[in-house]
Amino acid sequence: MALRMSSLFVRTQKEDPVGAEVASHKLLHRAGYIRRSAPGIYTWLPLGLAVLGKIETIVRDEMARAGSQEVHFPGLLPADPYKTSGRWEAFGPDLFHLKDRRENDYILAPTHEEVFTLLVKDLYSSYKDLPLSIYQIQTKYRDEARPRAGLLRGREFIMKDAYSFDIDDAGLDASYEAMRVAYLRAFARLGLPCLPVKATPGAMGGSGTEEFIYPSEVGEDTFVRSPGGYAANVEAVTSIVPEAIPYENSPAAHVEDTPDTPTIETLVAAANANHPREDRAWTAADTLKNVVCAVTHPDGTREIIVIGLPGDRAVDLDRAAGTGMLGAGEVDLEAATAEDLAAQPELVKGYIGPGNDLEHPVLGLEAPSKIRYLLDPRVVDGTRWITGANEPGRHVFDLVAGRDFTADGTIEAAEVVLGDPAPDGSGPLELARGVEIGQIFKLGRKYAEALDLKVLDQNGKAATVTMGSYGLGVTRVMACIAEEFHSDDGLLWPQHLAPADVHVIVAGKGEEIAAAGEKLTADLEAEGVSVLLDDRNKVSPGFKFADAELIGIPTVIVVGRGVADGVLEVRNRLADEKQELPLAEVVPTTVERVRQAYAQAGAAADAAVAADAAAGTAADGTVETLAD
Ligand code: ATP
Ligand code: MG
Questions:
Q1: 437 alpha carbon to ligand 1 midpoint, in Å?
Q2: Of the candidates 410, 444, 463, which is a domain's last residue?
Q3: Residues 123 and 40 in one domain
């Protein structure tokens, strides 16, 4: 049945929603696809559901192709499995908690690893049952600190989440690779450019993981790539650690007055003028900057730490928080406040340093303050620094790592900058922004161990199952498609994802024109082409065209005055083309165009997998050479 503008539950809006920053948010609201219910929570209208349904169909199809079977879990779950796995705490305030009338803890599920694990434990008992891949398309809840950009970051959103269960590592590798191919194919069919990048497991745990990134300025993720094919989320980039340097011949550390050196630049200038190095000039990269930060752990405890890094680098708080080097679970990292600093009198603002005596450190292992001191991995033993002397107006020179100070550990906290070397030697990195549209994980045995998922192996012994988990943000993907495909005047969907295949506009008065619109609609639908018919009586053609541009179906057929001469105007908005076609040709031409659009999406999926294979990126993100 055709959709009719005269009865369709939609009211297009002239105004952007309050506070909307990105095109997808503005246009999905204005074109009547979604309505905001609460911050980060949206109601779906018929047009929105139509596109969402097409996206889900493609995702389902690729899951089936990868051998995954669909199930469906509740969104409301008992808290116990999440307590057992530790994620009741690890999720921190992002988790929506509630109690039932008997005071039992429940959650609104943010993701479902625990209950999938328990379901398999419930039903399966032998290695012969494996491998298994199951998935759902389901609503997730996360009380995001900063819901933003409409569907891009919601507090309620739809995710496709799949889980694989294998008896051994080789099985997990194969399951992961099948999902990886399914993702490449699904995003290609959805028309979204995307790039698999190495990522960090974060609170999920596990070994290998990749994120699928849609490159876009509206994204919150920064990723890097090299000419040689390395691609990673900044959180996953590892610094190239230099060899330790022998320090027997290094000069002894000495504390100096350094008046009027409020910045690193002035400090370096004063150092070169008054305390020159014998071998070369001091640079900003020779200064050791010590930044005081506050970590909020998932249980709410706040910890003050100091991060030491070369003075030519800034701290990237998100990268540092995402590395997993600050503690278990999802941690929050921010610059320490004045209050935090006031509570740590041993830290002299502007002159913080680890001290120059291993026996009596100010920071680091054994220091009485017990403040965790974490160093950039480039600060290897033997490197020689200028840093704060823990006294106002004084710095220590020739402070040698390993000889004069140590730390409690290392952390990749430094901002990755343009031109940094790729860790695999594949060239200088460039940085770009993007949106994470999916992430695949080799979880390993973490959840199976926590929840005791074992099966009998070939020898009749109980063996812990190894798992993978594979998330794809369905509603976020819809926002990304809207970002990628729109014009100044509205949405402009790829042909095969539009809420209807064709938008027929009755643009003229009189019975004859209205009847021609009805006939065209019936003829198209008889051929399996879906139609949105603008049959509104009292609406001007100008209004109808504006609505059509906002709603964004790329094929528009105008039924107007030409009817008298037996011609209709067929517009292809994606190609910015218009043609006048004789009535008899309109239906076959349109049917062919729609059919081709679906076929092209399928071909794009094959091409994406071939291109990925040619790029030589293996499942673990390592780059293979042609010689392999
Ligand atoms: P992000 O880093 O953007 O918060 P995430 O890494 O926490 O995402 P995952 O747990 O990997 O997300 O979830 C799988 C997928 O679900 C993500 O790749 C993304 O596409 C989608 N997703 C996650 N959070 C949201 C959200 N708040 N709104 C919409 N989609 C989301
Ligand atoms: Mg993720």
A1: 7
A2: 410
A3: yes
* Statement: residue 203 has pLDDT above 90: no
User: Which residue's alpha carbon is nearest to atom 28 within ligand 1?
Assistant: 153
pLDDT score, position 620? 45
Shared domain for 309 and 369, answered yes or no, is yes
pLDDT in tens, 324-374: 788 877 788 999 999 988 888 888 888 999 998 888 898 887 888 889 999
Q: Classify burial at 625, counting beta carbons within 10 Å of its beta carbon; exposed 0-12, middle 13-18, buried 19 or more.
A: exposed
Find out whether 325 and 375 touch, Cβ atoms under 8 Å.
Answer: no
Atom of ligand 1 nearest to the CA of 155: 27
* Number of domains making up the chain: 3
Together in a domain, 24 and 150: yes
Q: What CATH number is associated with residue 179?
A: 3.30.930.10
pLDDT at 617 over 80: no
CB-based contact 612:184 (threshold 8 Å): yes
> How do the residues of the chain divide into helix, strand and coil, expressed in percent and rounded to 5?
30, 30, 40
Which residues, chain by chain, have CB under 5 Å from ion ligand 2?
A: 439
Does residue 117 sit in the same domain as residue 61? Answer: yes
Q: Are residues 189 and 299 in the same domain?
A: no
Question: What spacing in Å lies between the alpha carbon of 473 and ligand 1's midpoint?
Answer: 6
Global pTM value:
0.87
Mean pLDDT across the stretch 383-398? 94
Contact in structure between 594 and 586 (CB atoms under 8 Å):
no
In whole angstroms, give the CA distance from residue 250 to residue 76. Answer: 63
User: Is the pLDDT assigned to residue 623 strictly greater than 60?
Assistant: no
* Beta bridge mates, 548: none
Binned at pLDDT 50, 70 and 90, residue 627 comes out as very low
Residue of 114, 143, 159 with the most ligand 1 atoms within 8 Å of its CB, for mutation: 159
